[in-house]
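Let's practice the habit of predicting before peeking. Look at the sequence and jot down your guess about where helices and strands might fall. Then scroll down.
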Amino acid sequence: MKKSRKKLSFRTMWKIHGIIFVSPFLIGFIAFFLVPLANTIFYSLNTVGVGDQGGMTFEWNGIQNYLDLFRTEVTTSNTTMIRLFTEENTTMLISLPLIVVFSLFMALLANRKFKGRAVVRLLFFLPIILGIDVVINMLTITVGASGGLDTGSNLLAGSYVTIFLVRTLNVPMRILYPIMSYVENIFDLISQAGVQTLVYLTALQSISPSLYEVAKMEGATAYETFWKVTIPSIMNITFFVVIYTIVDLFLKSSIATEAYSFAFKQGKIGTGSALSVVYMLNVILVLAIAALLLRKVVKKNEK
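Done guessing? Here is the structure:
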């Protein structure tokens, strides 16, 4: 008699498929990032110099590079590292909801049915695919100079809305300034929301039309349908969009530039490596907090 093969459960197959899916990333991370990451941590715990006959010399100093980083070292703009991290995290927290909400809004517009929708999508997504910098440069040339795009700063700073928010509601300028900067630099906002818009558009098109038909039959308004059908259906995608946006914002952070300046311009490889390690831990902490909060929201909606 032939022995019957034991079939794998659905959950086991699901895990195997997940491992196969992420295996290219794991192979790439081990092959190209694991060794540089270990070297960066090693450099951050040493005073790195150049030997008399070439090569690098290492003198163990423990966490001294980390202590000097926040005690004595300053950035290229003569600000402390604590202030730099505070400003970058604050900017990220303000930029994150703006980008996520804007990308969802643009995806909702692109997903609506109207004549010429394919042409509108092409015109909207083509600059994102080709590179928004080209479009910005063309618009800058059309305006006449790069300074022409920066004149909105004084205009918004002196507007009635800003005066009302500052004087009447006592909203601090450190909170208003990043928001005003995004309003003034709308093309930068579009460029940062391009991938997220594509992801949201795909998610919206994957929602079953029967859900909207049931909501309509139950007499739900467009507002109720949006919050009871659309938003719960794309919560998992929102989780991905938020994580992607956080990583993308941190990759464009000026902290990476400061780490490069310490290591390669000032010759302080140990300090630059320490800044890179602290920067990486800061990103991991923010991602962990965001993932924890979003997981709770997703589980709450599933219930």
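How did you do? The beta strands are 46-50, 56-60.
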